[in-house]
Structure to design on (944 residues):
């Protein structure tokens, strides 16, 4: 067993709307730049001397990929990296859970999961075996807005692996026998999700914030009921309508040239043809309208911790304010020294970590402030979180916080661009959201140049808890009493799949 | 990425140079100017295996205290200054080792080294009850979040005590017991620091975009001036012999937890990290559960449809490893039936060699993971330090990979027979707990 000081090592800038588990997070309180109090006068000179000052770091601007289009209409982004004999590619189509029909939550998800359950002339097991023979790592997934197939391969196995990759993307079998197995496993996994307090909180805030009929209102991996309701005809129809070359973006990074890639694509995906009909337009969900209950409580009897979450509507990925929002988020809950983490963890010990994340999504998603706190401190921790947010929204960021957030933004990007699969995944998310190939460099510049008036406005708009939706997952009998002191109305009670048990 | 490591994955090297300071601190440099970043990684050769009775969880609690400030860098500034310079940090504690790492733009390297030297020098004597009490609460919350309130989290607590005998350094979990964490006092902290956080018990890796000469001079001044109190004694003599398990029979335990599906776990003592047999066990784990074509997935999930998921792994450790095979039962499947099916698959590894195709596949999957991992500067630093700590040789990367490349089906077969005994094994079942009040 290995225990880390912090729950997660790295943050990620890009976050699917529906995935809270991938947002960014770190604060700076004023202490971070005070000079150290002078040590007691040493008898001899201090061998360490004064704290070294760091020179400004060299700017890091992500390189833009080369862009071209294949004969059958696939838009390709390529960023060559020849230092390591690895290639990572990612095909994205701009349709995800927000395209799920009513009552079929998780259709985009299970369609993605079915792509590698047999494709071309290989059944599910043979396909998996051949990928492993090559040491290729292939993954399929859907998030709120998009669906992806990604592969990472050693250069020497590129030809053979691309054949399999092409089959998965363009020639999946979508076999009803395989679907039955996949669906059984999927259904069981959704039952397991109800036992996980964080996953439960994500399911519940989504339906409570957006409403069940909103494209972002359901969990993108579906519900136990919808998992039972989806058949092979629906999967095939979803695939046929949404997985087509004229809407697909293919992003590659690594040890491959444009000529090599073109030849690979011609061989593996050259016969992938779009239907004659026009493709559907990507869904652009509207901002959630409310009204929301003051707070929602999900009972988890005897739990030693409660999840506390303050949720607000966010902004869409194409919004010009998005890069600057990264900085604001960093200050309140995006970094270890963020205000929330310093207060709830380092001052009070209520939690192992408090954090803030915002979705990067085609429609306005959400901002989520989050902590898992000792059950007997739920009231105190929630009061502290709300007070921190009110102060932040009212006062905005300090100069130190702005400086630090800029430095952290640079650091984050360097980390992403360190690996070819990091690059491919990051750019594929951008491409699927309709962002331009040079978006990352422009966003990096925007962040470095953002000024206080814009940042303070974003802080007051997206981080004030008044109004917001508060979600708590923990022992109802103890928590209702602790929240009494806020003078709030009684909570709306929901169950672990988000259904209302008792309206407010 | 360095040219040396490039091209064919046939030759893997992470270039380095190494020095030992007069106070015993080992320093390893690895220059790589691909991106303007640096990593500082310090491994202290201490982990939960050094904890004494009544103080389980202390090594990890202590790791949290390492961030609580000194005179030069008061509480909050270690993180504050580092993050302001564009850096970040983390630390991990495991049974064998405590690892601290800082990642930052190359211009911040002097700051990182200064902060690390400062706390290596002074932290212990400056710990007070307020710092201890605060991080004790944080750690108790970490325990709640990662174990008590997490489905199947209880396995982390129970498996060590079933697999390793009382008195063995691995008998208790890294996180420790709440009672022991609550009992920890300031004198314990000072004693632990004095004993284990000595320059002679640490190794420092600097990797990335920096100048070795200039950095070495700084390190000699800032770290070299820290007095050593002598190398602490080792506990390795309590390690079980690699090929003889201390288990004498089938150890069974059933515990209940707030879970949806029952989980069956089989665990064996297995060869220690980097010892003969370690790579072979790793490859056997891959044959059992890596991907849909693996034996356990194909048999239990795909064909018999009795398992929801399967996993096998060789958890390599310094005093002895754990080979663990787990499966979640599908709804309505008797865990005893699942257990029999797992044992049947394990028995096949003892009865017959794996096929050449299976072995090649396992090797390819491993090599891909290894090469992918080496893309990241922090990972390269950790690897250098792992080799230094365990072998005294940071340059082991190629030989490490060769252990896998040269593994033979016959050796896998032999180790399966030595290790995966049907009658010296732990069988842990985690059963769903009825929870009438859960969703009212």
């Amino acid at each position: 067993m290995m225990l880390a000081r912090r729950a997660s090592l790295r943050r990620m800038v890009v976050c699917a709307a529906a995935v809270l588990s991938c947002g960014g997070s770190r604060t700076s309180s004023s202490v971070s730049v005070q000079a150290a109090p002078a040590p007691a006068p040493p008898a001899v000179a201090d061998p360490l001397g004064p704290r070294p000052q760091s020179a400004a770091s060299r700017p890091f601007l992500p390189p833009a990929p080369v862009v071209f289009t294949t004969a059958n209409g696939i838009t390709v982004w390529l960023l060559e990296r020849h230092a390591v004999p690895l290639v990572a590619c990612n095909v994205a189509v701009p349709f995800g859970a927000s395209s799920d029909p009513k009552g079929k939550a998780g259709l985009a998800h299970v369609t993605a999961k079915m792509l590698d359950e047999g494709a071309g002339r290989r059944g599910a097991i043979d396909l998996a075996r051949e990928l492993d023979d090559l040491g290729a790592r292939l993954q399929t997934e859907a998030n709120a807005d998009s669906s992806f197939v990604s592969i990472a391969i050693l250069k020497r196995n590129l030809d053979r692996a691309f054949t399999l990759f092409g089959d998965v993307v363009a020639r999946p079998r979508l076999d009803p026998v395989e679907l039955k197995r996949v669906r059984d496993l999927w259904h069981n996994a959704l039952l397991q999700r109800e036992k996980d307090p964080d996953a439960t909180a994500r399911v519940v805030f989504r339906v409570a914030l957006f409403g069940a009929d909103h494209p972002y209102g359901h969990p993108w991996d579906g519900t136990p009921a919808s998992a039972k309701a989806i058949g092979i005809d629906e999967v095939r129809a979803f695939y046929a309508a949404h997985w087509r070359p004229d809407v697909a973006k293919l992003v590659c990074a690594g040890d491959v040239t444009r000529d090599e890639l073109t030849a690979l694509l011609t061989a593996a995906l050259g016969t992938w043809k779009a239907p004659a009909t026009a493709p559907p337009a990507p869904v652009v969900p509207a901002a959630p309208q409310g009204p929301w209950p003051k707070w929602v409580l999900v009972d988890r009897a005897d739990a030693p911790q409660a999840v506390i979450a303050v949720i607000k509507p966010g902004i869409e990925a194409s919004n010009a304010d998005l890069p600057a929002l990264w900085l604001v988020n960093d200050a309140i809950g995006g970094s270890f020294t963020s205000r929330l983490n310093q207060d709830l963890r380092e001052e009070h010990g209520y939690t192992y970590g408090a954090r803030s994340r915002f979705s990067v999504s085609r429609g306005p998603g959400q901002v989520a402030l989050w902590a898992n706190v000792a059950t007997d401190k739920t009231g105190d921790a929630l009061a502290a979180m709300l007070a921190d947010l009110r102060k932040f929204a009212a006062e905005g960021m300090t100069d130190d916080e702005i400086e630090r957030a800029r430095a952290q933004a640079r650091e984050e990007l360097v980390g992403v661009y360190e690996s070819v699969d990091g690059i491919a995944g990051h750019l594929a998310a951008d491409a699927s959201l309709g962002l331009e190939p040079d978006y990352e460099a422009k966003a990096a510049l925007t962040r470095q140049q953002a000024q206080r008036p814009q940042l303070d406005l974003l802080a007051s708009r997206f981080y004030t808890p008044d109004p917001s939706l508060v979600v708590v997952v923990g022992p109802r009998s103890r928590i209702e009493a602790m929240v009494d002191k806020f003078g709030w109305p009684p909570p709306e009670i929901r169950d672990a799949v988000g259904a209302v048990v008792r309206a407010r | 990425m360095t040219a040396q490591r490039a091209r064919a994955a046939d030759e893997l090297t992470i270039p380095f140079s190494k020095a030992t300071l007069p106070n015993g601190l080992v320093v390893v440099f690895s220059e790589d100017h691909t991106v303007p970043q640096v990593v500082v990684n310090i491994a202290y050769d201490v982990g939960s295996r050094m904890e004494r009775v009544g103080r389980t969880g202390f090594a990890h609690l202590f790791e949290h205290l390492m961030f609580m400030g000194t005179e030069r860098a008061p509480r909050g500034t270690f993180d504050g200054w580092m993050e302001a310079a564009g850096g970040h940090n983390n630390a991990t504690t495991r049974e064998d080792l405590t690892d601290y790492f800082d990642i930052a733009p190359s211009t911040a390297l002097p700051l990182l080294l200064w902060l690390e030297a400062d706390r290596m020098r002074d932290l212990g004597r400056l710990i007070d009850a307020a710092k201890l009490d605060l991080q004790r609460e944080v750690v108790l919350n970490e325990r709640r979040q990662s174990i008590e309130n997490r489905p199947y989290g209880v396995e982390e607590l129970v498996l060590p005590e079933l697999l390793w005998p009382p008195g063995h350094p691995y008998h208790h979990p890294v996180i420790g017991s709440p009672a022991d964490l609550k009992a920890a006092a300031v004198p314990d902290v000072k004693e632990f620091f004095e004993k284990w956080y000595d320059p002679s018990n640490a190794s420092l890796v600097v990797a990335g975009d920096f100048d070795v000469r200039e950095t070495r001079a700084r390190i000699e001044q800032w770290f070299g001036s820290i007095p050593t109190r002598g190398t602490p004694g080792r506990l390795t003599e309590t390690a079980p012999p690699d090929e003889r398990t201390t288990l004498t029979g089938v150890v069974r335990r059933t515990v209940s937890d707030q879970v949806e599906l029952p989980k069956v776990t089989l665990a064996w003592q297995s060869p220690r990290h980097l010892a003969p047999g370690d790579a072979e066990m790793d490859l056997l784990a891959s044959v059992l559960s890596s991907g849909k074509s693996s034996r356990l997935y194909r048999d239990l999930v795909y064909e018999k449809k009795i398992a929801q998921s399967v996993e096998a792994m060789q958890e390599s450790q310094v005093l002895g490893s754990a080979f663990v095979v787990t499966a979640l039962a599908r709804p309505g499947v008797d865990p005893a039936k699942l257990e029999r099916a797992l044992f049947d698959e394990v028995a096949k590894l003892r009865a017959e060699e794996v096929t050449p195709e299976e072995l090649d596949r396992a090797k390819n999957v491993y090599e891909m993971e290894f090469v992918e991992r080496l893309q990241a500067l922090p990972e390269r630093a950790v690897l250098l330090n792992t080799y230094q700590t365990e072998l005294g040789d940071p340059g082991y990367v190629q030989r490490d990979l060769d252990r896998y490349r040269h593994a033979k089906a016959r050796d896998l077969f032999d180790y399966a027979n030595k290790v995966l005994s049907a009658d010296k094994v732990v069988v842990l079942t985690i059963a769903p707990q009825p929870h009438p009040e859960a969703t009212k």
Summary: The first helix of chain B runs from residue 58 to 65.
